[in-house]
């Protein structure tokens, strides 16, 4: 299969295939019907599967998730769309207090196979409330799976896996990569597994979602400066694949975690903590983070300063104590 | 998807609450509601007496330290029992934390009903066994679950309605309004029964709502609305049954009163007068039905004694089931967080076991 598909197109195909394969799958949300979603991810699905299975709802995110919970209790598999990251916040209580907890509260008697699709992150010149990276709110909530694709291939595979999952899934779509193209493959990868996107000997870049492409670009640039960079795409943020990440860091001895979200209390802090706990004696330098600043998401004309760039990641790589003689020592 | 509403169902409630029985138990002559059959009335009486005894027993169990806390529904038996008995076999109930009497009326085991308050686990019963959703502790979130459930039933072609219970305080929550709106747009077969007991813990209706009644909120969502005397079990049964059979959404406000405090941990004397409580004791739902049944010859002393004995027996069984030390296993902590326990939780479970060894 060498046909090139956009990430949005791959998501559309995954939704179409899931609707075709399983009559209990429903797709609903704001503007997902005849319009096909503001990013066209649901394009053509209402026409193909009818208004009973692909439909527009009132504009109310708590209502969308709350009713999805009730539908899942009654045997359906809702796939709902939150139009933008920050617009999902009204649904926070339904997600954290009910969707995430009902299996546990009921000792496994109530299963909620609900997928919440959330276009997230910046880089598209969006105005305020359209560019948040909200992953840490969800990864901090036990009971949720949180996944995010970085390529069209993974967009298809991870969305199919998410819809098939018996657990609720927060499916974070890197909106700046919606139009990136790639080939789809049938190669199976575990739902929970991270993936080494590029192998290298000197340093591991740990990235996910929109930053996977940036990390790969950085690896190319780093090669020109003599660093052989490995790139790990986390794919599943929760549960976290310690095994793949640690195998890489043990091999390279150096790591940088990259994400768009603010650094303080962010997802990268968890990754750094886990890598440090598990790989301490293999590290030649502290694990660094390149993240967005600890500020509210900036306006479009300033976002380029906020988002991790190739140069900023290269700077972090350069700070990984390459000249130290004492391995693992700390230098301010 | 939308269905045509029955023409006689109106969006605005009546000015006065609908009723079938006056507070002295005499029948209302010109009520638009149909009086339930005699056997239903006799059963409503039995379940209210048993339910009230259960409620008293549960409060007593808090004093013995067997329950962490108990929110009583004493005084609200007409709503708790009338609405549940109105459910048809395939219908679902979505209750709140104050609806333990509704749960036992639905047939949920009392020990399973009280598991949450006993503290061994969150939910004791299997929702699918009795068609009862999990008791809702954060207010109004269950309204959306009920709408989604009912809409799914419609999509699946099943004749199932959902009854969601909520209180006056919960009508201020955003989820209630989203749920009414979704129910109106989808014409979902869901009945919202608001038990307006006058107070949200201590906050009175005057600080909760500026509309002429809570039932008036239905018209804004295209949802037919009903105002009913919530201490008249015959009327509650009649309006809930009619709403369940309508095939669409209904908002019912039932005017009632919480005789006890919010929970055993609350002091109601700080926010309401004993005169007010006395006035509502005078409108007691059980006394009212008993007066009617007695006048009709459907309740004699022998029957009354038999029901009282059954209630005592039930209370004794509740005591026996609850007078046990619940010692949940620490391993339970890590179960059912996900369908398959992921590695990090298996590691944490092992660490806890080692710590306890």
UniProtKB/TrEMBL annotation, chain A:
<dbReference type="InterPro" id="IPR029061">
    <property type="entry name" value="THDP-binding"/>
</dbReference>
<feature type="domain" description="Transketolase-like pyrimidine-binding">
    <location>
        <begin position="5"/>
        <end position="180"/>
    </location>
</feature>
<dbReference type="GO" id="GO:0016491">
    <property type="term" value="F:oxidoreductase activity"/>
</dbReference>
<keyword id="KW-0560">Oxidoreductase</keyword>
<dbReference type="InterPro" id="IPR009014">
    <property type="entry name" value="Transketo_C/PFOR_II"/>
</dbReference>
<dbReference type="GO" id="GO:0000287">
    <property type="term" value="F:magnesium ion binding"/>
</dbReference>
<dbReference type="Pfam" id="PF02779">
    <property type="entry name" value="Transket_pyr"/>
</dbReference>
<dbReference type="InterPro" id="IPR033248">
    <property type="entry name" value="Transketolase_C"/>
</dbReference>
<protein>
    <submittedName>
        <fullName>Pyruvate dehydrogenase E1 component beta subunit</fullName>
    </submittedName>
</protein>
<keyword id="KW-0786">Thiamine pyrophosphate</keyword>
<keyword id="KW-0670">Pyruvate</keyword>
<dbReference type="InterPro" id="IPR005475">
    <property type="entry name" value="Transketolase-like_Pyr-bd"/>
</dbReference>
<dbReference type="Pfam" id="PF02780">
    <property type="entry name" value="Transketolase_C"/>
</dbReference>
TrEMBL record, chain B:
<dbReference type="Pfam" id="PF00676">
    <property type="entry name" value="E1_dh"/>
</dbReference>
<protein>
    <submittedName>
        <fullName>Pyruvate dehydrogenase E1 component alpha subunit</fullName>
    </submittedName>
</protein>
<dbReference type="InterPro" id="IPR001017">
    <property type="entry name" value="DH_E1"/>
</dbReference>
<dbReference type="GO" id="GO:0016624">
    <property type="term" value="F:oxidoreductase activity, acting on the aldehyde or oxo group of donors, disulfide as acceptor"/>
</dbReference>
<dbReference type="GO" id="GO:0000287">
    <property type="term" value="F:magnesium ion binding"/>
</dbReference>
<dbReference type="GO" id="GO:0009083">
    <property type="term" value="P:branched-chain amino acid catabolic process"/>
</dbReference>
<feature type="domain" description="Dehydrogenase E1 component">
    <location>
        <begin position="46"/>
        <end position="312"/>
    </location>
</feature>
<keyword id="KW-0786">Thiamine pyrophosphate</keyword>
<keyword id="KW-0670">Pyruvate</keyword>
<dbReference type="InterPro" id="IPR050771">
    <property type="entry name" value="Alpha-ketoacid_DH_E1_comp"/>
</dbReference>
<feature type="region of interest" description="Disordered">
    <location>
        <begin position="1"/>
        <end position="36"/>
    </location>
</feature>
<dbReference type="InterPro" id="IPR029061">
    <property type="entry name" value="THDP-binding"/>
</dbReference>
<keyword id="KW-0560">Oxidoreductase</keyword>
<dbReference type="InterPro" id="IPR017596">
    <property type="entry name" value="PdhA/BkdA"/>
</dbReference>
């Amino acid at each position: 299969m060498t046909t090139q598909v956009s990430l949005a197109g791959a998501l559309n195909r995954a939704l179409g295939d899931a609707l075709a394969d399983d009559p209990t799958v429903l797709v609903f949300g704001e503007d997902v019907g005849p319009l096909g979603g503001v990013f066209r991810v649901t394009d053509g699905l209402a026409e193909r599967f009818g208004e009973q299975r692909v439909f527009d709802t009132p504009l109310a995110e708590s209502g969308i998730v709350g009713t999805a919970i009730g539908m899942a209790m009654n045997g359906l598999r809702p796939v709902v769309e939150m139009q933008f990251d920050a617009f999902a916040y009204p649904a926070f209580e339904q997600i954290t207090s009910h969707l995430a907890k009902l299996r546990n509260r009921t000792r496994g008697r109530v299963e909620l196979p609900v997928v919440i699709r959330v276009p997230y992150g910046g880089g598209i010149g969006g105005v305020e409330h359209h560019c948040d990276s909200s992953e840490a709110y969800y990864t901090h909530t036990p009971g949720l799976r949180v996944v995010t694709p970085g390529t069209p291939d993974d967009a298809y595979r991870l969305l199919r896996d998410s819809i098939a999952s018996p657990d609720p899934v927060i499916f974070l779509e890197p909106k700046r990569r919606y139009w990136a193209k790639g080939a789809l493959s049938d190669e199976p990868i575990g739902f929970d597994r991270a993936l080494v996107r590029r192998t290298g000997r000197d340093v591991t870049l740990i990235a996910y979602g929109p930053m996977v492409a940036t990390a790969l670009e950085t690896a190319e640039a780093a090669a020109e400066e003599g660093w052989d960079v490995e790139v790990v795409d986390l794919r599943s943020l929760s549960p976290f694949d310690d095994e793949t990440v640690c195998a890489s860091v043990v091999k390279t001895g150096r790591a940088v975690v990259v994400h768009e979200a603010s650094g303080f209390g962010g997802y990268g802090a968890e990754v750094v903590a886990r890598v440090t706990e598990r790989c301490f004696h293999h590290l030649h330098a502290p694990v660094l983070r390149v993240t967005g600043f600890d500020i509210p998401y900036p306006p479009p004309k300033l976002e380029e300063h906020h988002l991790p760039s190739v140069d900023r990641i290269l700077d972090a790589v350069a700070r990984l104590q390459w000249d130290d003689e004492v391995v693992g020592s700390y230098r301010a | 998807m939308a269905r045509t509403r029955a023409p006689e169902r109106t969006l605005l409630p009546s000015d006065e609450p609908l009723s079938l029985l006056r507070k002295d138990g005499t029948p209302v002559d010109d009520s638009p509601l149909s009086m339930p059959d005699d056997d239903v009335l006799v059963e409503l009486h039995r379940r209210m007496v048993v339910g009230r005894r259960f409620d008293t027993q549960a409060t007593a169990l808090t004093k013995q330290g067997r329950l962490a806390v108990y929110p009583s529904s004493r005084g609200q038996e007409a709503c708790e029992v009338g609405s549940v008995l109105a459910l048809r076999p395939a219908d679902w109930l979505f209750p709140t934390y104050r609806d333990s009497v509704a749960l036992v009326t639905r047939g949920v085991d009392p020990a399973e009903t009280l598991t949450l308050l006993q503290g061994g686990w969150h939910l004791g019963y299997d929702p699918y066994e009795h068609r009862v959703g999990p008791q809702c502790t954060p207010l109004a979130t269950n309204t959306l679950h009920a709408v989604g459930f009912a809409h799914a039933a419609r999509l699946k072609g099943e004749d199932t309605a959902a009854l969601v219970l909520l209180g006056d305080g919960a009508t201020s929550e955003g989820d209630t309004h989203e749920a009414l709106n979704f129910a109106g747009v989808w014409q979902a077969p869901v009945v919202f029964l608001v038990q307006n007991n006058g107070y949200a813990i201590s906050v009175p209706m005057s600080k909760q709502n500026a509309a002429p009644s809570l039932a008036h909120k239905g018209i804004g969502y295209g949802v037919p609305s009903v105002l009913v005397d919530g201490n008249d079990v015959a009327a509650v049964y009649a309006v809930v049954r009619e709403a369940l059979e309508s095939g669409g959404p209904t908002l019912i406000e039932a005017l009632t009163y919480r005789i006890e405090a919010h929970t055993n941990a609350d002091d109601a004397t700080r926010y309401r007068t004993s005169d007010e409580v006395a006035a509502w004791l005078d409108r007691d739902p059980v006394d009212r039905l008993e007066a009617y049944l007695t006048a009709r010859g459907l309740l004699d002393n022998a029957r009354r004694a038999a029901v009282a004995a059954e209630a005592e027996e039930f209370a004794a069984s509740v005591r026996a089931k609850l007078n046990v030390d619940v010692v949940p296993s620490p391993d339970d902590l890590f179960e059912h967080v996900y369908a398959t326990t992921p590695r990090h939780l298996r590691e944490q479970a092992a660490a806890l076991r080692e710590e306890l060894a």
